[in-house]
Amino acid sequence: MTKRAPIAATTIILSLLVIFTACQTDITATVSVDSELVVISKGSPGPGNPTMEPYEFATSRSGYITLHGQLVVRDPLTILPGPDDAIYLVPMDSEGEGVTGIPQFTVGEVPQADVDERTGEFLFIDIEPGKYAVVVLTKGGSQIPTRNMDDGTYSIFTFTVEQQNQSIELGSLSLP
After folding, report:
1. Residue 21 pLDDT more than 90?
2. 4 φ, ψ to 5°?
3. Cα separation of 140 and 112, whole Å?
């Protein structure tokens, strides 16, 4: 009987550790995607989560437009934005009516957003008037146009000279 006592005590201690570990609360969740860890914040800065520092965005120069929004990735297991703030503003042909297609782009030749990776909040600065589509470059290299969360239409916007020196809210955009 003396040989079984240490085994029983070890079993009880391990069981208690498992129970206490399961009861721990955490402010982040970790999801494994393509052998990389993606940390998803539960919440935003404020009284309930004071540890998240506000993200500092740059500001536009005089005479340009600032665009602000938030990207919501509906299915991060199948479509995940690429690294390095992969949200782009692609100029569209403003001639004619309707949209015939969103043109492909080359990184470095179109405006790229500054992105708070923790929340999906993004900002385009120094934008000139014109017609644009918001497009995300995925980890796989696909160029996917975003959609407006409200109505599901493609995120295509036209900005005018009258909007210079203003900050315009694009709202929540989804991928896909």
Report:
1. no
2. -80, -25
3. 18
